[in-house]
């Protein structure tokens, strides 16, 4: 061992490991300061740092491999020469700069999401056009990069000053030692690869402590590996067809009857009486619009005057919860009406095409269906999903140049989006066709930029963007009200998810509370619905208003049905999937584990359930999620089904 450590490749790897370890520790301390009001300052924080150092070591082992190979590949004399030492010093500067860049990126990511790198960071790496533009518009990149270069150069100078470069250059260079270092290095990598995973982390009561325990680089690659999670492999299951039978029992209501008695047929027939209505439907999915931006959920800054007014004139749902924390998850809930399966949203997955969606009944009745988006709809595979669902794609790439008056890296401003929607509605109405349009907004997203003179808030501020998004809704309604099709149109307004999802508990339920309403004066009476409900219930309620008879594979319910549907909501954060009911919260987690809590809706406090209390609750939760996962995996959601028999 001593002989190996004396080798030049080993010393290069030890130097790089030291730099990696030092900057990882520094990053953890910085994030701790950022989360100082959220973490639990108790013994668990010591445990978090202990686990953090463990993952820093595991990740640092991978970071040393290029240096080991450098020490082996480059000629020995060159490495010991002055040019060789300059090369090593330059590479150290680059290596340190890269790590400092990652640390700073983690800081900003934490500021936005309250977590280490995860699925979102992976998405951001893939969709570089929008993300890089967003970063340039949101942060002072020249000073940041200048600071990174100076900090990296300073660290390299310290390495040179204290003699570490001289120590590295004096390492032995015989081939036996060099090869031995390579073998030892790859053995450590193999041990880390197969022996270390984030599932080893204990279940910290405070989720901020859990995030502190991670290493950012390790978390990033762990998320990259786990874009999709096999439900039956990682989560609690019911045997045989039990999950399907129980799901059928849970889903059936007096006006939503099972289409057949077969366990593998989860279709329900929505029974109606009387004449169907051919109303137009414009669904506005609002980016990151938390419930607490409106007065009903606590806003005192007057951020949403238009939505607050519309809420009193609409069918308004004040106890509705989003299914997830990403736009594609909200889109999935609104168009598939399914609980959130673990991993990435179905829209994102390669198999998430040509599915039976909420557009299907509209298409069957001759409606013009369209997906309207002020950005590039290729982002998150939205165009692929909506086009194969039967929608015209009306993202910014399909617009005329004159349609865009103001844009950021994410796309055209909300008023441009709504003006384009109104223009297309005019054309469709003139052609004598009804329409259903899905509009996805962008303005309430970093860099929070919007046209001047619209609201009394500053640009590049979250509250300013929130108020502008509200202003644009008011403008949409005002302009639409002058159109001949307005009196026959339902405006469905709902958020995709909240503005933030981080919380101290395993799943902070308050971070999923979003506004939703159906505005249609003369068609839908104003009413407040306060029953606990889910994002997946919104479109089934719209179908109830339309009085349409149809078959559905969705798990949502008509909240206005004569026989009141069960009160429940589904929430998730990729790996943790949960069922919220009046009697508590059941969370399913990887490795077949779960948590059961009593939930106080008034105080937002979770308390572990007494032993044996929630067995039926747990079984119901498993049935919902296991059957929903099977429904997608089996191909039953395809517009052309490919039947399969494995119901697990």
Q: Your description of this structure?
A:
Strands 3, 4, 5, 6, 9, 10, 11, 12 and 13 form a nine-stranded mixed β-sheet that branches. A five-stranded antiparallel β-sheet has the order 15-16-17-18-19, with helices on one face. Strands 1-2-14 form a three-stranded antiparallel β-sheet, with no helix packed on it. It folds into two domains: 2-225, no CATH class; 279-570, Alkaline Phosphatase, subunit A (3-Layer(aba) Sandwich), CATH 3.40.720. α2 packs parallel to α5 (82-113), α5 packs across α8 and α19 (414-430) runs parallel beside α20. By secondary structure, the protein is of the alpha/beta class. Helix content is 45%, strand content 14%. It is built from 22 helices and 19 strands.
Which blocks of ≥5 consecutive residues have pLDDT under 50?
Answer: 641-648
Distance between the termini: 51 Å
- Residues in β-strands, percent: 5-15%
Continuous helix count: 22
What's the level 1 CATH class of the largest domain? Alpha Beta
How many domains? The number is 2
Q: Report the average pLDDT across residues.
A: 89
Q: What would you call the structural class?
A: alpha/beta
- CATH fold name of the largest domain: Alkaline Phosphatase, subunit A
- Specify the biggest β-sheet: 9 strands, mixed
What descriptors fit this protein?
2 domains, 648 residues, Alkaline Phosphatase, subunit A, five-stranded antiparallel β-sheet
């Amino acid at each position: 061992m001593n002989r190996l450590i004396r080798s030049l490749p080993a010393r290069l790897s030890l130097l790089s490991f030291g730099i990696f370890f030092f900057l990882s520790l520094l990053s953890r301390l910085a994030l701790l300061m950022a989360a100082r009001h959220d973490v639990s300052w108790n013994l668990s924080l010591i445990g978090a740092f202990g686990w953090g150092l463990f993952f820093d070591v595991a990740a640092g082992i991978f970071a040393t491999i290029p240096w080991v190979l450098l020490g082996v590949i480059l000629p020995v004399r060159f490495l010991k020469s002055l040019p060789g030492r300059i090369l090593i010093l330059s590479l150290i500067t680059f290596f340190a700069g890269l790590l400092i860049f990652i640390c700073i990126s983690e800081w900003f990511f934490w500021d936005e999401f309250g977590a280490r790198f995860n699925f979102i960071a992976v998405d951001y790496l893939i969709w570089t056009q929008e993300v890089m533009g967003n970063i340039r518009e949101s942060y002072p990149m020249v000073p940041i990069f200048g600071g990174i270069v100076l900090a990296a150069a300073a660290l390299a100078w310290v390495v040179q000053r204290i003699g570490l470069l001289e120590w590295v250059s004096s390492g032995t260079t015989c081939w036996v030692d060099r090869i031995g270092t390579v073998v030892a290095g790859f053995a450590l990598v193999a041990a880390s690869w197969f022996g270390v995973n984030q599932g080893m982390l204990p279940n910290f009561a405070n989720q901020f402590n859990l995030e502190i325990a991670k290493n950012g680089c390790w978390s990033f690659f762990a998320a990259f590996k786990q874009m999709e999670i096999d439900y039956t492999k990682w989560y609690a299951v019911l045997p045989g067809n039990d999950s399907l039978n129980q799901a059928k029992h849970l889903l059936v209501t007096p006006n939503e009857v099972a289409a057949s008695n077969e366990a593998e047929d989860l279709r329900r027939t929505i029974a109606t009486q009387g004449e169907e209505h051919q109303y137009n439907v414009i669904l506005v999915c609002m980016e990151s619009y938390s419930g607490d931006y409106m007065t009903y959920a606590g806003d005192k800054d007057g951020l949403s005057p238009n939505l607050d007014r519309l809420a009193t004139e609409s069918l308004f749902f004040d106890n509705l919860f989003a299914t997830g924390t990403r736009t594609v998850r909200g889109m999935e809930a609104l168009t598939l009406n399914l609980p959130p399966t673990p991993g990435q949203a179905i829209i994102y997955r390669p198999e998430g095409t040509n599915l039976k969606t909420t557009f299907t009944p509209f298409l069957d009745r001759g409606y013009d269906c369209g997906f309207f988006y002020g950005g590039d709809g290729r982002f998150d595979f939205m165009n692929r999903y909506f086009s194969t669902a039967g929608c015209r794609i009306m993202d910014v790439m399909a617009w005329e140049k004159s349609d865009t008056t103001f844009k950021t890296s994410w796309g055209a401003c909300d008023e441009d989006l709504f003006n384009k929607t109104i223009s297309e509605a005019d054309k469709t109405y003139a052609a004598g066709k009804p329409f259903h349009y899905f509009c996805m907004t962008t303005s309430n997203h970093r860099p929070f930029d919007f046209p001047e003179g619209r609201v009394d808030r500053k640009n590049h501020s979250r509250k300013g963007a929130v108020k502008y998004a509200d202003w644009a809704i008011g403008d949409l309604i005002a302009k639409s009200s002058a159109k001949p099709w307005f009196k026959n149109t339902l405006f469905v307004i709902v958020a995709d998810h909240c503005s933030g999802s981080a919380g101290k508990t395993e799943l902070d339920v308050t971070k999923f509370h979003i506004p939703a309403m159906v505005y249609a004066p003369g068609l839908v009476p104003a009413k407040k619905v306060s029953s606990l409900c889910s994002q997946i219930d919104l479109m089934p309620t719209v179908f109830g208003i339309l009085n349409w008879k149809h078959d559905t594979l969705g798990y949502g319910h008509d909240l206005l049905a004569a026989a009141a549907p069960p009160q429940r909501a589904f929430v998730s954060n990729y790996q943790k999937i949960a069922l919220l009911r009046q009697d508590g919260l059941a969370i399913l987690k990887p490795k077949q584990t779960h948590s059961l809590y009593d939930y106080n809706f008034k105080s937002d406090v979770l308390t572990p359930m007494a032993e044996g209390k929630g067995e039926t609750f747990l079984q119901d939760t498993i049935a919902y999620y296991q059957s929903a996962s099977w429904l997608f995996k089996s191909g039953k959601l395809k517009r052309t089904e490919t039947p399969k028999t494995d119901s697990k």
